[in-house]
Amino acid sequence: MKRILILGATGSIGTSACDVVRTHPSDFRIAGLAVRSNREKAEALGREFGAPVFCGENAAVRAVAETDADLVLVSTVGLSGLAPTLAAIERGVDVALATKEVMVAAGELVCARAEAKGVKILPVDSEHSAIFQCMQAGDAGWRGRRDVSKLILTASGGPFLDAPADLSSVTPEQALNHPRWKMGPKVTVDSSTMMNKGFEILEARWLFDVPVERIDVVVHPESVVHSLVEFADGATLAQLSPPDMRVPIQYAFSWPERLPAERAQLNLASLSSLTFRAPDETRFPALRLVKEAARAGGTKTAVLSAADEVAVARFLAGEIRYTDIVRLVAAAVDAAPDLPCDSLENILAADAAGRKLAKEWNS
Ligand SMILES: NC(=O)c1ccc[n+]([C@@H]2O[C@H](COP(=O)([O-])OP(=O)(O)OC[C@H]3O[C@@H](n4cnc5c(N)ncnc54)[C@H](OP(=O)(O)O)[C@@H]3O)[C@@H](O)[C@H]2O)c1
């Protein structure tokens, strides 16, 4: 019986995680739940699972400190996931990580601390879970493998893949209409700009200890192949499943085992085709921007993540145009000072600088 603490229990990932636990009552128990404001729903879940409930801005860190768990699922939004992730590592508790901004902003710091404490960071994001599953081939582990030549992240391409070239008049409603996945608003807008895929490059860089130069993105609109690993001997392994976040969540919970679940399975014969194409970095400049920030290193990617959060909020509030999102983020990354990514203080300072620049930015 694995005791799981769920941070962000009322969100899209948290809700799927609760469902995974419901399906496997003799394998998993929810030890605690943390949310920010949705107290009513959290308390209903707390009653259902017999788990303590933590609410408020610091709920996640308190929950980690006060709950005995074997695994912490971090699925809050943005940098709010960082302090509880570090707290779980400090307690020596393994982390199932959905909140990609933690690795985007502070991957170097998080991985250094996890390694020092012998704590595992297990991927939840579907692409990273796919890579993680492919890495189970052989017994060389999943970080810094010498027999891996490339990681290949698939991208659905979002709602504007084949839209007319000028995206400046895209509305929030259009950006929130993802063709394949039902997710929270921030990650849905990030998917449409491909900033999300850029973040996933950084997430993969740190989770698997592979330099960004060896991480490729390929557009795959059917979202059936969730990602691939190219090995040094010329073999490429892929993971395929229907687009259902309960699959990677459950794998993070059950790893290294696989548990049965009555879910829709892939029917390969009914798929007419699986298509792949190179991403258009001119229409979606976010990918290039993220790789440049990664190469600059230090806290530049923390600035990037913070500025993007503000930019998406400003777009959803009607303050800036869709195409301003990446322009704003690029300007913030360029203007912010770079600090070493070796302390929570530096990450928070970079985050604050990114937010300030993003709030003040005008087209
Ligand atoms: N959704 C997906 O399919 C998906 C896939 C891959 C990765 N991810 C990543 O997973 C993370 C969560 O995404 P989501 O779509 O589940 O987001 P979401 O639906 O917006 O849910 C966020 C959850 O986090 C809670 N929360 C926010 N700030 C908090 C804080 N300071 N302390 C405690 N709880 C807090 C919210 O509580 P309240 O309800 O009380 O506000 C809510 O339960 C994101 O980083 C996203 O990029 C999501």
Sheet of most strands: 6 strands, parallel
Count the helices. How many? 14
Q: Structural class, judged by helices and strands?
A: alpha/beta
Distance between the termini: 54 Å
Described by the principal axes of the CA atoms, the overall outline is globular
Structure, described:
It is a single chain. This protein is an alpha/beta fold and 363 residues long. Among the domains are: 2-134 and 242-270, Rossmann fold, CATH 3.40.50.720; 297-363, RNA polymerase sigma factor, region 2, helix turn helix motif (Rna Polymerase Sigma Factor, Chain: A), CATH 1.10.1740. Helices cover 44% and strands 15% of the residues. It contains 14 helices and 10 strands. It has helices at residues 12-23, 39-49, 59-66, 82-90, 101-117, 126-134, 172-175, 185-193, 195-207, 246-254, 286-296, 300-316, 324-335, 344-360; strands at 2-7, 28-35, 53-55, 71-74, 94-97, 121-123, 148-155, 215-219, 225-231, 236-240. The chain has a 6-stranded parallel β-sheet, sandwiched between helices. It has a 4-stranded mixed β-sheet with strand order 8-7-9-10, covered by helices on one side. Helix 5 packs antiparallel against helix 12 and helix 12 (300-316) packs parallel to helix 14. The chain is globular. The termini are far apart.
Précis, in short:
The protein is α/β, with parallel strands linked by helices. The protein has helices spanning 12-23, 39-49, 59-66, 82-90, 101-117, 126-134, 172-175, 185-193, 195-207, 246-254, 286-296, 300-316, 324-335, 344-360, and strands at residues 2-7, 28-35, 53-55, 71-74, 94-97, 121-123, 148-155, 215-219, 225-231, 236-240.
